[in-house]
Amino acid sequence: MRPPVLNIVLVQPEIPNNTGNIGRTAAATGCRLHIVHPIGFDMSEKALRRAGLDYWHLVDCREHESWEAFLDRERPGRAFLFTTKASRAHWDAPFQADDYLLFGGETRGVSDEIHGWVSDGWGDDHRVTLPMAPEARSLNLATAVCAAVYEARRQLRTTTI
Question: Is residue 90 part of a domain?
């Protein structure tokens, strides 16, 4: 496989259909997908086939047994955490090739530890949000990942995958 343009990191995802849609986005955009366990569903080959993910062989996916295992293996050079708890809009973040775009699980986001890891490593400016109407609670995870990836790709001005 080619080197990834960007890295999408799902920390403890809970809904298989969201992860499947995010896998499709990763394959279509030249990103590597990282899935950090524990997760709320089965990722076996049989389960993927049963879910109709016949394109999964096109997804550059790495599974990590824990957040610590992810950090040990990947050692991210730069990361951005997408969260409703930030005030900086994602379009104000200066994305670079090889960045890691972090997303938490659908019902709980990421831990305070991961918020701190991002802030300590790169400052609070690396905690970003997708602006939305104040009465909206959040976006679907797959929608948020797609919006984030395409904004980063727009900034990188890369048209080839």
Answer: yes
